[in-house]
Amino acid sequence: MLGGIGVAETVAGQPYEYQRRELVEPDWTRFPGWRDVTAAQWQSAQWQRVNCVKNIKQLRAVLGDLVDESFYADLEDDHQRLATMSMLLPPQMLNTMVPDRAPDTASFYADPVRRYMLPVATDRHLDWPSHPHATRDSLHEHDMWVAEGLTHRYPTKVLAELLSTCPQYCGHCTRMDLVGNSTPTVDKLKLTLKPVDRYTLHLDYLKAHPGVRDVVVSGGDVANVPWKQLEAYLMGLLSVPTVRDIRLATKALMGLPQHWLQDDVVEGMHRVAVTAQRRGVNLAVHTHVNHVNSLTPLVARAVRTLLEVGVRDVRNQGVLMRGVNATVGDLLDLCFALQGEAGILPYYFYMCDMIPNAEHWRVPVWHAQQLQHDLMGYLPGYATPRIVCDVPFVGKRWVHMISDYDREHGISYWTKNYRTSIEADDSEALSKLYAYYDPIDTLPESGQDWWRKQQQA
């Protein structure tokens, strides 16, 4: 009997088969423009920043004739008509595209990291490039500023946007309204205060609001804040006795790990971490990795260094995106590499926000629910990520927490249990339903027809 069951299980197999894969640093010399780059140059944060790819001319210089002219034309078309973020790619990140060989046009088009870091026009759904309810500041973070760059959205938590730049720009950026350079499609907002004045206002607000205990320090990316400024800001937060959690948000831990390995940064992080420990404050770093190919030994070394100097946790907040990671195999491959090889805790996967020209990335709620179901049971419980929908005016909700769901029209309805900083006088804030919308191309034809009629009305 037991033998018979075993045979049946062997024949059937598991939906996902785990196999350990050690991290590998791709050979950057496979790119014509980097054939003479030394290991010392590659590991230099300064070299990485100086050699970031910011335009098509610089991309050509790296790729040479590996990809056809048609790709560059496609990329230029996207920049002129559709892109909400300008191009900015550190060599470290570009090197994780088609990591196992020199790319050709087909493999470069298909690459998952390329698909969200270097989008082209033909990636997008030109019939529905944007949802009718998409907005530039889809989460209304700017509306909830209590001081320039300080969003008070949740009762006990604030988001501190210290600056509006990053070492790399992601095509799907939820803060595309503020972060990065303006594009032909988007004229960006600007921070106007001097950093020291902005930081002072943040600290003044926290001291005046002792109910806020958790500060997410972001931007932009904190890796672009000059270290002395960042350390002073963090020490200022640590001087506020009611602040008990500090989270530093940096995609550069993956996109530019060389930054976090610089001597002055390592020594400074040690000073901050020791101070946090002495004051009983939880200090964590949150990064943003969307695909397993982005994890390399340099990333793992940067994470290990942060943990060695006293950072309590390093966690990952990814984004679900079609064509990048929206299959259970992709997510499990990524999570096992994060947790088992890089020392990063899988924490959240967000559904991609409803910003303009992002419909081709977004997944419907039902798909996210299925992914959460299919993830369960493979990873350790503490390392099983939660898939969440960041609902406008509501905040993060596990994807199974919907109150109602109109699958035909792709409208889910959600409730919340707190007021944001702009709803203090709204007596109905805790009783009404809030809508979130699936990408229209995933709906049945009847639902797509309904939305077409809505647009024509």
Describe this structure in words.
By secondary structure, this protein is of the alpha/beta class. 35% of the residues lie in helices and 14% in strands. It is built from 17 helices and 13 strands. The chain has helices at 2-12, 39-42, 45-50, 56-63, 69-81, 91-94, 105-110, 112-117, 195-208, 227-238, 252-255, 257-260, 263-278, 297-308, 328-342, 365-375, 445-456, and strands at residues 145-147, 150-154, 157-161, 214-218, 245-249, 282-287, 313-320, 345-351, 386-391, 395-398, 404-406, 411-414, 434-437. The strands form two sheets. It has a ten-stranded mixed β-sheet. A three-stranded antiparallel β-sheet has the order 11-12-13, with no helix packed on it. Strand 1 and strand 2 form a beta hairpin. The chain starts with a helix and ends with a helix.
Topology diagram in text:
Elements: H1 2-12, H2 39-42, H3 45-50, H4 56-63, H5 69-81, H6 91-94, H7 105-110, H8 112-117, E1 145-147, E2 150-154, E3 157-161, H9 195-208, E4 214-218, H10 227-238, E5 245-249, H11 252-255, H12 257-260, H13 263-278, E6 282-287, H14 297-308, E7 313-320, H15 328-342, E8 345-351, H16 365-375, E9 386-391, E10 395-398, E11 404-406, E12 411-414, E13 434-437, H17 445-456
Parallel strand pairs: 3-4, 4-5, 5-6, 6-7, 7-8, 8-9
Antiparallel strand pairs: 1-2, 2-3, 9-10, 11-12, 12-13
InterPro entries: Aldolase_TIM, Lys_aminomutase/Glu_NH3_mut, rSAM_sf
Organism: Actinoplanes lobatus
Keywords: 4Fe-4S, Iron, Iron-sulfur, Metal-binding
